[in-house]
Amino acid sequence: MAAKDYYGVLGVPRDADDAALKKAYRNLARAYHPDRNPGDRKAEERFKEISEAYTVLSDPEKRAQYDRFGTVGGIGEPGFGTIFEDLFEGFFGGGDRGRSRSRARRGDDLRYDLEISLEEAAQGMETKLQVPRLETCDSCRGSGVEPGSQPEVCGTCRGQGQVRFSQGFLTVARPCPNCRGEGRIIRNPCSACRGQGRVSRERLLKVTIPAGVEHGNQLRLTGEGEGGTQGGPAGDLYVVLHIKPHEIFVREGAHLICELPLTFPQVALGDEVEVPVLDGTAKLKVPAGTQPGQRLVLKGKGMPHLRGRGRGDAVYDVVVEVPTQLTARQRELLEEFRGSHDGSSGPRVSKFVERMKQLFGS
Ligand SMILES: [Zn+2]
Ligand SMILES: [Zn+2]
Question: pLDDT exceeding 90 applies to what percent of the chain?
Fold first, then answer.
């Protein structure tokens, strides 16, 4: 290595202190950084010189050696890389090429499909989910670098992650083949995560499902998704709720609908019947003269409102079952029932008969 004037390269006096060195280096590095001077070989050479000069002069031992002998051995890319990293942290922070920032990646969001029963949706519940996920490595905090060592700036692309080729008049940028676009090289990968920055783990996560949730509702567990890398934040975990179809009830918002088959005497004479509710059974009054399709309601026996107080209703759709097989005795009684009035047994029937007479005169 030929003797070089490192002080001259940085434009500082021989007795410049650390702060003056650093300031000079930053100003020059900024001006000659390859990012600012794409395709400019001279700027690139100058940038290398500046970096080399700073690498030597910022190291007290190397500086002393240089001051005495006018040269220093063993200046390679590694040392350059370390200093480059230190200084450039946040250096290009405002620009879209901020290398150190762009490496930090937020972890992916995860989705967990959870099937629960209608009863569980009504009561709310606490449950534990077994979630396999990638977590940020504790050992290297996601950097992928063995603790105690440093990633090196890639010598091929000088940390830019891309290299430029000249093809005729064109300059083409491609991802750097040496570092695969990362801009840095990990010589000492973290042994805990094999340099991945993340490790797969199964976590048991406690989830509280509020009462009144509906099919398709999502619960977001902030930061419980996959771990970020290079200091990026974790993603979120979305628990998507599926409510199993219920044997008896169909849900309409906060109301629970159930079909209630009744016999003709029950609806004609009135009755009190036992009906299902979500947590057992209840008594339901069937008023005399209940019509098919009428809805009988038990107030407040439906689902709780997810937001707000109270509950919906349990609703019973009345279906009247007409007997298809009559005993002789039943037939006799029904015949007697029919003969017991003049045929206009109800307002709807009378109205219909009246209308037919008007229209067709029969
Ligand atoms: Zn690690
Ligand atoms: Zn590279």
Answer: 48
Q: Which of 166-170, 218-222, 243-247, 331-335 has the lowest mean pLDDT?
A: 166-170
| Strand 198-209 with 125-136, pairing | antiparallel
Q: What share of residues in the chain are helix, strand, coil (percent, to 5)?
A: 30, 30, 45
CA angle 152, 34, 47 (to 5 degrees): 75
Q: How many other β-carbons are positioned within 10 Å of the β-carbon of residue 227?
A: 25
Cβ < 5 A residues, ion ligand 2? 154, 156-157, 176, 178-179
Residue 175 CA to ligand 2 center (angstroms) comes to: 8
Give this prediction's pTM.
0.59
Q: Which of 135, 130, 123, 108 is nearest to 206 (CA)?
A: 130
Contacts of 173 (CB under 8 A, 6+ apart): 38, 162, 163, 164, 165
Query: Ligand 1: distance of its center to the CA of 41 in Å?
Result: 37
Q: Which two tokens stand for residue 285?
A: 């009054």
Cα of 71 from ligand 2 centre, angstroms = 28
For 196-219, letters b (16+ CB in 10 Å) and e give: bbbbeeeeeeebebeebbeeebeb
Q: Which ligand is nearest to the CA of 137?
A: 1
Q: Beta strand 237-243 with 110-116: parallel, antiparallel or unpaired?
A: parallel
CA 56–ligand 2 middle distance (angstroms): 23
Indicate which ligand has the atom closest to the C-alpha of 183: 2
Centre of ligand 1 to C-alpha 132, Å, is 18
Query: Tokens in use for 194?
Result: 């094999």
pLDDT for residue 345: 66
Q: Please give the distance, rounded to the nearest whole angstrom, from the Cα atom of residue 286 to the centre of ligand 1.
A: 70
- The angle, 0 to 180 degrees and rounded to 10, between the axes of the packed helices 41-57 and 77-88 is 90
Task: Tell me, in angstroms, the distance from the centre of ligand 1 to residue 223's CA.
Answer: 19
Distance 163 CA to ligand 2 centre (A): 7
Confidence class of residue 89 from pLDDT cuts 50, 70 and 90? very low
Ligand 1 center from residue 144 Cα (angstroms): 5
pLDDT band at 344 (very low <50, low <70, confident <90, very high): low
